[in-house]
Design goal:
This protein has 183 residues and is mostly helical. The chain has one domain. It is built from 4 helices and no strands. The longest helix is centred in the middle third of the chain and has 55 residues. The chain is elongated and about 90 Å long. The chain starts with a helix and ends with a helix.
């Protein structure tokens, strides 16, 4: 966010000043933000996938170990208790999945309104620059276009955060489902 604000300030200064021309630096910073977001999401998904695979194996073995220990070491009712442990683990998995799906809808609902607002602002600034081009000074048109680009970067950041939340939540659901598969 701070780099986006700095890039915006640089583009405003570059568009309004005759002597200071640093618009390319602003474009470089905005491009750097886009590349950084792509790199971060790639690393995030890679680490989460690797961790999910390892964690699900350990969870499945732990559940199987608890069931076997309960069945073996508790006299008389051990087998029934082991089966009830299996049923409790299955029920918690079902409960967790339903809460996870509701959580995904909540995250989508929370993120939808700011994404819609930023989309409208982006379209409005680009439309204003298109309408003002034949009427206004070249600097004003360039400034409106740069502001539209800034809101486009902010829209990308907001969309990026929403996608990370949804991917993280989905991976958490998948991790525990895979662990229950090994029961």
């Amino acid at each position: 966010m701070p780099i986006t604000l700095i890039a915006t300030a640089i583009s405003i200064i570059s568009n309004l000043s005759e002597r200071v021309q640093i618009g390319k630096l602003s474009k470089f910073l905005k491009s750097g933000i886009t590349w950084f977001l792509g790199l971060v999401i790639t690393i995030f998904v890679s680490i989460l996938s690797l961790e999910g695979t390892l964690t699900s194996n350990v969870d499945g073995l732990t559940a199987k170990g608890i069931k076997a220990a309960t069945s073996t070491f508790v006299p008389v009712v051990g087998k029934a208790l082991g089966d009830s442990v299996d049923m409790v683990l299955g029920s918690t998995s079902l409960l967790k999945n339903s809460i996870g799906i509701v959580g995904m809808f909540v995250v989508i609902g929370i993120c939808a309104m700011p994404i819609i607002k930023l989309s409208i602002l982006t379209i409005t600034y680009h439309f204003a620059s298109a309408v003002c081009e034949p009427l206004a000074d070249k600097k004003i048109v360039g400034l409106l276009e740069e502001m539209g680009g800034t809101f486009k970067v902010l829209l990308g950041i907001m969309f990026f955060v929403a996608v990370l939340l949804i991917i993280g939540l989905a991976m958490c659901i998948k991790i525990s489902n895979s662990g229950m598969m090994y029961r």
